Amino acid sequence: MGALLLSAGIQDVRSREIANWKNVIIALLAPLWWLAIGLDPWPGMAVQTGVALLVFALFVGAFALGQMGGGDVKLIGALSLWLTPLHLLDMLLAMSVIGGALTLAMLIEQRVRRGAGSIEVPYGVAIALAGLLALREPLLNQFTQ
């Protein structure tokens, strides 16, 4: 999972795209994770799926407004399947902070180089880093009760 997120972030930096197959694999691995941790189909798996669909729908709105790329939206949706609502909020907050810092750094670089035009932020980097931060808790601490 971590390798897929890192790969998605690197690919976004290089080409400003995230391959659909990476998002699909992340999404398809989530139910296996649910089974591994003993998540009940009802309400556990249903809540995970419902929250992920809601988050995906909200970010589709950002895509429709031209504020995010389609790969970014799909990556957020796929990651949402892995995280409890509380961990998802942590991820979204971290994503916002990291994305803001990345945008600021790119704006500063553009000003230093005296570039013109708008910048295209590889937001997949922020999503991947925030996902890794949010996933560390359930992945590493799920055995402690």
TrEMBL record:
Pfam families linked: Peptidase_A24
Coiled coil: none
Domain Prepilin type IV endopeptidase peptidase span(s) in chain numbering: 3-104
Subcellular location per the Swiss-Prot or TrEMBL entry: Cell membrane
InterPro entries in UniProt: Preflagellin_Peptidase (IPR052218), Prepilin_IV_endopep_pep (IPR000045)
Keyword Hydrolase: yes
Keywords linked to the UniProt accession: Cell membrane, Hydrolase, Membrane, Transmembrane, Transmembrane helix
Membrane topology: Multi-pass membrane protein
EC code(s) of this entry: 3.4.23.43
Molecular-function GO terms, alphabetical: aspartic-type endopeptidase activity
Membrane spanning stretches: 25-42, 49-68, 88-108, 115-135
Name assigned to this protein: Prepilin peptidase CpaA
Organism: Sphingomonas endophytica
